[in-house]
Amino acid sequence: MKADLPIPDTASISVFHDVPNSKWAVMADLSWTRWEVFDRLVLTPEEPTTSTGVINTFWDNKFRVSTGATYDWSSDLQLRGGVAFDDSPIKTVFRGAGVPDSDRIIVAIGGGYALRENLDIDFSYQHFFFKEGRVINRVATASRLIGAFDVSADWFALGVTLRF
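-> structure tokens emitted (164 positions)
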């Protein structure tokens, strides 16, 4: 099977402010994603003997808002933290076991360290607190999927920057 996956448009507005006479900087972001372009996924068979499948998603366009801060601990070490609220594009009636998405709050901590003049290492940890995802889903066979998902996720990242 093959499928074309439309990637949604996004628009963001962000602000960054160095706090005067301080080691602190603050930032905020508002992003919008046009999820409506992903209203259905058409699965096309590679062999003509198999029927085409369609998964209707009917996702909504949504906003994400976040805020954070950085603290310059020293000339070599910068600490970072932030929080975000990300609204799920999936309506309860279309939520299912395949994509148990729901509204979420994301908390992140991390930092950056200058190992040398031309070599930095960045690290972060994020935890995703998903709201309980209620499911009331009818399918074509007239059966129903009713329940709730309890989901969480952790994300660790490590990056290295080498400047020549």
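The domain at 2-162 is CATH 2.40.160.60 (Porin).
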